[in-house]
Design a protein that fits this description.
This is DUF4114 domain-containing protein. The protein is α+β, with helices and mostly antiparallel strands and about 240 residues long. Helices cover about 15% and strands about 30% of the residues. The protein folds into two domains: about 30 residues; about 200 residues, no CATH class. The strands form three sheets. A seven-stranded antiparallel beta sheet has the order 7-6-5-2-12-11-10. Strands 4-3-8-9 form a four-stranded antiparallel beta sheet, with no helix packed on it. The chain has a two-stranded antiparallel sheet with strand order 1-13. A hairpin with a 5-residue loop joins strand 6 and strand 7. The longest helix has 17 residues. The chain is globular and about 45 Å long.
Length: about 240
C-alpha cells in the first residue's frame, strides 16, 4: 500500500480517533518533554540534516526500558556531541530492576569517545555482555566483559560532571534526561537516544549533548499510545 495513499491516511485518522476515544487526551498525547529547545544548532536541525522526518516534540517515544533478542550484536554509535563536558561524559547501560539507588553501570563509551565512534554489544547466555569499542576509523579501541546484565530489561545512562542520568525517569526525580525517537527512512528500525548531561531543571533542554543511534534493540514502552508511537506504526 502506498504510504501516502488516501486509504493509508484514513487508516491513520481512524487509529487516531480510536486513540482519543480509548484514553484521556492528557494521557494519550502527553510528552516526556513538552518543548525541546529549537534555537541555534538544535537537535531538530541535526535530524533534518541527516534526512530524518522526525519532529522532536511530537515524535517522542517512551523509550525508558530496553531489550534485545538478537543472536548477534547490538550496535551503538555516537552521532553527535555538543556538550562542554563531552570529554568527561561516559555512556552505557544498566539493569532497570537493580534495587540499588545507584545501579551497577556497564560502560559502553568512555569520555574519550567522540562522534563516529561505535560499539558492538554481544548479549550472551547467563547475563554476559561483551562490549567492543571502535573509533571512527573502525579501529578496535578496547573490549570489556561484563556479567549480570539483564538483556530483557535494561536502560541507558550518562555519567559525567553534571551527574548520573538514566533513561528511566524515576531515577531522575521524575524528569526525562534522555529522549527517544524511532528512525525513519534509511534509519528505519533503529532508534535515536538523545541526552541532557545536566539536571533537567538546570538544562537548556536541547537534548543534543550526546546523540546515539542504536540498532538491534527494542524500546519497551511504559506508557499508553502516543502520537510518536502511532506515527511509527503507520509510516
Amino acid at each position: 500500500m502506498n504510504l501516502g495513499s488516501p486509504i493509508r491516511k484514513l487508516t491513520v485518522a481512524a487509529a487516531a480517533l480510536l486513540l482519543v476515544a480509548s484514553v484521556s487526551t492528557a494521557d494519550a498525547f502527553s510528552l516526556r518533554v513538552p518543548q525541546v529547545a529549537l534555537n541555534g544548532a538544535s537537535l531538530q536541525a541535526y535530524l533534518n540534516g541527516v534526512g530524518e522526518t522526525i519532529n522532536v516534540n511530537t515524535d517522542q517515544v517512551d523509550g525508558q526500558v530496553w531489550s534485545t533478542s538478537v543472536s548477534g550484536n547490538s550496535t551503538f554509535t555516537i552521532m553527535l556531541e555538543a556538550a562542554g563536558n563531552a570529554a568527561f561524559n561516559s555512556i552505557g547501560i544498566y539493569n532497570i530492576d537493580d534495587p540499588n539507588a545507584m545501579p551497577a553501570l556497564f560502560q559502553v563509551f568512555p569520555g574519550a569517545a567522540s562522534p563516529g565512534w561505535f560499539a558492538t554489544a554481544h548479549f550472551g547466555a547467563g547475563g554476559s555482555l561483551v562490549v567492543t569499542l571502535f573509533d571512527n576509523n573502525s579501529v578496535i579501541m578496547g573490549q570489556t566483559f561484563y556479567a549480570g546484565v539483564n538483556k530483557s530489561r535494561f536502560g541507558f545512562y550518562l555519567q559525567g560532571p553534571g551527574g548520573t542520568f538514566f533513561s528511566d525517569d524515576t531515577r531522575n526525580g521524575g524528569f526525562a534526561q534522555i529522549l527517544t525517537y524511532a528512525g525513519t527512512g534509511i534509519n528505519f528500525g533503529t532508534w535515536w537516544e538523545c541526552f541532557e548531561d545536566v539536571p533537567y531543571v538546570q538544562s537548556d533542554k536541547d537534548f543534543e549533548d550526546v546523540v546515539l543511534l542504536v540498532e538491534s534493540v527494542s524500546a519497551t514502552t511504559t506508557d499508553g499510545m502516543t502520537w510518536g508511537r502511532l506515527k511509527k506504526l503507520y509510516r
